[in-house]
Amino acid sequence: MAQINFGGVLENVVTRDEFPLSKAQKVLQHETIAVLGYGVQGPGQALNLRDNGINVIVGQRKDSASWHKALKDGWLEGETLFELEEACQRGTILLNLLSDAGQIAAWPVVSKHLTEGKALYFSHGFGVTFHEKTGIVPPAHVDVFLVAPKGSGTSLRSLFLQGQGLNSSYAVYQNASGRAEERALALGIAIGSGYLFETEFKKEVYSDLTGERGVLMGAIAGLFEAQYNVLRKNGHSPSEAFNETVEELTQSLMPLVAENGMDWMYANCSTTAQRGALDWKGRFQEATEPLFTELYDSVAAGKEAEIVISANSQPDYREKLEVELADLRNSELWQTGVQVRQLRPKK
Ligand SMILES: NC(=O)c1ccc[n+]([C@@H]2O[C@H](COP(=O)([O-])OP(=O)(O)OC[C@H]3O[C@@H](n4cnc5c(N)ncnc54)[C@H](O)[C@@H]3O)[C@@H](O)[C@H]2O)c1
Ligand SMILES: CC(C)(O)[C@@H](O)C(=O)O
Ligand SMILES: [Mg+2]
Ligand SMILES: [Mg+2]
After folding, report:
1. Which of 84, 210, 216, 283 pairs as cysteine with 59 (C-beta 3.0–4.6 A)?
2. What is the ipTM of this complex?
């Protein structure tokens, strides 16, 4: 474990230097890893594990869309692809990558096969932390841990294929075998994490729900809409409003932040831009911090979990989400995005 100084605060992180893939392969050599669910994280983790030489099978509802996706990815029915229950029975470490609502529905089947010595793995602290709402209470005789990639399963796979890695958090909730941490870290490395930082189940779920509702997805989409609307109301064309709001951010400025930080991005813009951005940054922080506090409180009170569980447990929740996503897709802002993307020069 390496101790890293994050802006003055020391934290434990596990890198591929301390925990190389060869060590992960050794730790997992006698395990059968059952990936339950083949939605977004399922494929990313299962394919990376397979390519890393780990013994992995997939469990999924037969003839569902995800089942067919698994077949397309080369999983073989009866050899490496099984109905959920059979995968639970065959697996020694069950990677519960069903949707968070699906995990509630499938819990009777999953828990039935959690015999002594097995381990239960999540990529989110949701089910266990909100156990009063989910009913997910693992038996004491199994290891329970999480590895939560900090990004989409799609990026986990594409970065792996590029020889890079998404970072993940990890946490141990129950250590029945005495090997829970080693199993968690081995899986974290084998699914393709760039490095792993330590957390707890509750902290993972609180920060994750806040992040995706906030800056990562909810707030950014809201900010985009607000600025785009103001520009449009003041007579600017869709292409000007979109370029000044989204395209420049994703194509020019955020890659600079990713490369070398915010001050470096600022330093590579005009002094005019820097003056204005430094003046307005504080105003935006003041305006939004109360909203972020409200969001965090809603997460911590379990309200966000309750909303997710009740909305996503309805039989037609996928169709309803699709309608909302179609509204987003068909809005002027994002239709402008379609055209702008097509205008990007091709390699
Ligand atoms: N999507 C991501 O990139 C991402 C990133 C980090 C963590 N996570 C976490 O990983 C887990 C999986 O997320 P996801 O986005 O891949 O899930 P998802 O919404 O894509 O669903 C995964 C699978 O669950 C199956 N499923 C749903 N309900 C079921 C049921 N009742 N019985 C059997 N199967 C059922 C679906 O067929 C699907 O294949 C969640 O805990 C999520 O919070 C996801
Ligand atoms: C990819 C995210 C947003 O980080 C994840 O938390 C999710 O729920 O999909
Ligand atoms: Mg999340
Ligand atoms: Mg997340």
Report:
1. 84
2. 0.98
